[in-house]
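USER:
I would value a second opinion on how I read folds in token form. Give me a protein, with the fold worked out from its sequence. Write it directly below this note and I will take it from there.

ASSISTANT:
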Amino acid sequence: MTHTVTYLGFIPLLPLAGALLIGLIYVVTCQGKQISERLYGILGCVGPVLSFFMAVKVFFALLSLPAEQRFLSHKAFTWFAVGDLDVSMGFLADPLSSLMLLFVTFVGSLIHIYSIGYMAGDQKFGKFFAYLNLFLGSMLILVLGDGPVVMFVGWEGVGLCSYLLISFWSEDTDNVVAGNKAFIVNRIGDLGFVLGMAFLFWGIGADGFDYLSLKANAHNLTAPVGVLVCLLLFVGATGKSAQIPLYVWLPDAMAGPTPVSALIHAATMVTAGVYMVARFSFIYAHVPAAGEVVAWIGILTALLAAIFGMFQSDIKKILAYSTVSQLGYMFAGVGVAAYSAGIFHVFTHAFFKALLFLGAGSVIIALHHQQDIWKMGGLRSKLPVTYWTMLIGGLALAGCPPFAGFISKDEILYSALANGHVGIWLIGVLVAGITAYYTFRMIFVVFHGSPRDQEAYDHAHESPRVMLIPLLILAAGSMFAGYANIPAIFGGHQRVSHWLAPSLVEHHPHSGVGLEILAIAASILAFVIGISIAYRKFTVQVDEPDYSGIKKFAYHKFYVDELYHKVIVAPYQFVGKAISRVIEPYVTDAPVQASGWLYRMCGLAFKVVQVGYVRIYAVYMVIGVSILSLLLSRSLNF
């Protein structure tokens, strides 16, 4: 049973309207030269903030309903009807989408506010806020869509906005290349999503194509079709959420402004794949083989990205690889059918990853856009607020109890162990140790020791309040968000898991207290070992290491990008050149050019007789009439 409410559509509409209004002002006023940054900032922040308050309203509206009836819907209009496929532009709010709405709008609003300070003085200030609003609005359509087709509208919207924002500073060719890479790689994943929807429609019948109808008719899917649908949908997820083999675009997405990185990595685009798998839990839960694939791809991605993160020198790329790694944890969670654990890690990750990226932006601004950690050092005293907030974010990311990241990550690892996935659990514990190491490698090198660039250090200063206030709020979230789902072993009631239960189809393991204590102890030990190694190596003055051997191999990310270029990109370029040099000129264009040549020759031939003199045309007429008379007389036998 669903309850109809008309205001659901306004949640994505508000930031979308903001994007349209800011865009029109920017264009009409000749790139906004007559409009102050303050006005753009206010217009840019109003939509996200109002959307957050409406998300809170949705949450309390659902809370007032019995658990089995927590579904709000709104059918705006019939989008299209083709044969048995009838799709409405509809919105659905249930426990799963309401949780996503809360942190997407809340963290998104903080990032918008932070952007006022970060982008100050940029010539394209208004355009940036138009794109940022469009990005958030697209994500809200993705979350609120009542079926896979509407979800796909938002899915493609965030893909477009990622291209626009990653390549925002288009004066630099590398930024444009990074935007193109993100766009193209995501198109590969999106093909899997489209095919998955097609097979889902074919295999499940035509009794509605919204989530509730699909869930009610999921029993119509045969096992082979179910596996195919799950794997194809997961291909789409590997593109959006940067998993093997389509993870290569996300580290390059650092080319965009830092608030964009925070929005992509924390609240919007990269969480879409995990949300989609959880949204289709009613299919994945009944196809364990597909879940195994999801879990193993996720945990191997987590390990690979963590290894890369150990050797990066760009502060934003370290955090980018940590995002890829944490997304791997999330997919491991949903892959072992612990959907609420995976979504809860999405929730906590939004706080500490947004905090770390915005903190990194504060450091970058203070050092005049320097991003190399080996040219930093000793900034703890210069940037005290940034340091302490990033330290909190780092502790949450590294899995330090009782911070948010520890509680949500440990729940995934425990679920894997309790469900019999020992290999996934062991790799997950190893990744936890590596995460603690590279996270505090970054913090110790950036904030401790002595300055490596004295001039930059001397001019460094703390960021303005409009940037620091979001950091402080996110730091509080990184510390306390985990308490929303404290496990029973610590006296908690796992409120988030119970809240999500009506939206998910999952089995909660009951393996005893001993196994849970083992999982917790292993996670804490991994954290202690990782941070201890980082402390010994990087709290004293350390210069950039000389990478060689296996370190050089890892520093260059196992040369995966170069491999993709040689195996995939170069052959396509070769085929493209062959087409442009051989097929187009001699096969495709040659007949067209020959036809054009023939018409030109005929024209030249007729041009001879087109002299423009009436007396000559009279002679042509006499000759023509004579020829016609001769032919007519012969035909009549005169």
Remarks:
- The longest strand covers residues 72-82.
- The mean pLDDT is 90.
- Residues 560-609 form the longest helix (50 residues).
- Strands lie at 3-4, 72-82, 85-93.
